[in-house]
Amino acid sequence: MSLLTPDSGLLFWMLISFGIVVFILAKFGFPVILKMVEERKAYIEESLFMAEKARTELDKVKVESERIIENARNEHLKIMNDASQLRDLLIIDAKTKAAGEADKIIENARVQIQSEKEEAIRDIRRQVAGLSVDIAEKVLRSKLAEKDEQLNMINRLLDEINISKS
Amino acid sequence: MSRKIKILLLLLSAFGLTFHQVRASDVVATGKEEPLNVRELILEHISDSYEWHITTIGDKHISVPLPVIVYSKISGWHVFMSSEFHGGRHEGLFIAREGKYKGKIVELDTAGKEIKPFDISITKNVFSLLFSSVLLIIIIMSVARSYKKEGFAPKKGFVAAMEMFIMSVNDDIIKPCIGKDYKRYAPYLLTLFFFIFINNILGLIPLFPGGANVTGNIAITFVLAVCTFLIVNLSGSKEYWKEILWPDVPLWLKLPVPLMPAIELVGIFTKPFALMIRLFANMLAGHSIVLGLTALIFVTVSMGPAMNISMTAVSVVFSVFIGFVELLVAYIQAYIFTMLSAVFIGLARVEPHHKH
Question: How many Cβ pairs closer than 8 A exist between chain A and B?
């Protein structure tokens, strides 16, 4: 049957055209497409990998920044504590110093007052002594104007001496 | 969605046209009160011819003439259009009406016997073959060029669709069937797949550049099978040849009569032979069924209008159904041919078995 016997003309053309098709497509057609698709696949895989890496990196950075913030907060707290302690210390120190100073001033004042008081007493005594001598002089002068009186006086004085001697 | 409907309409109209085309030529036949010879009609449609018959209106044949290229030992080269025949002789050549060379160009030798000259005419099948080859090269090279131009950035539209198609063939057929090293064979197998596929599809389109029964012709499938045969056996590993010539069977099967080697050697040839016959027979059968179903309408004309109308409806419904089946077959046959070629290549590249 003619259907089952290959026709020479068709065979000839088939060889030529299929040969050309295979040559062109298998050399310039499909390899280009396959290579590009492969490259795209590789590119996507790489991108995914890079994204994954970037994410882990970011996570690390996040943790790091949190750590830094935590540290800073601690530092801040510490500094505040120190400052408040220092302030308390300063205040106490100042207080004690002020108290000491005040005591000293008071002491000084007291000493000065004491000495001035003594001075004043001495002065008063001196004046009182002078005044008493003057008064006594005046009293004696007025009393010893008469003779009797003078004798009385001498006797009494003698008695007193005697009494004190006996 | 609307694109899907468009494609559907296109397909439907395509099948509708098959129907119109056949009817136009056959109305004339029935008009002349000649009995319709369905067998002849189908055979004429599925076999090769020197002109591309499109339709017949009244007594006028409308056909596209194709170039005839013939080398005769007696009269040398002849190159002319097939329309020069006018149903008769031209330059001593004519188309044999019967006998061994029925439908072929022959000439008479000195003894008055019909002899066939060396004939490389651009026949209907050759023309369709060249057309589909050029179309395939244009399609694939345009896709490849868009990759060259724009790099591997994601594509849109046709190029993206082609990429998906190509990669599905590459990843689902070639890669698993050959295994490692598949990249060496992928370009050839992809070319094979798309060559068969585009010829199958063009064969389904009944309009002028399509409709020829290219992949349903044994010469075409023969060349394809030979190519696969050569590639399979040229890439055969040492283990492959050892399994054929000295297989791992009891000695009495190999000596003194080399029974197993003989069977294995036959196997080398039966594999591509099966490929050749499978594609050829499937496509031939597909074309025959579509034509047979369409011919049903004209066969039933003589049975009265009621029968004719009901059978027409049946015929159209079945034609559409078979049309879709053929669309599937066009893909499946390309798929099977490529897959089996890949499997044979994979089998030819066996590694030595590790014995435990």
Answer: 125
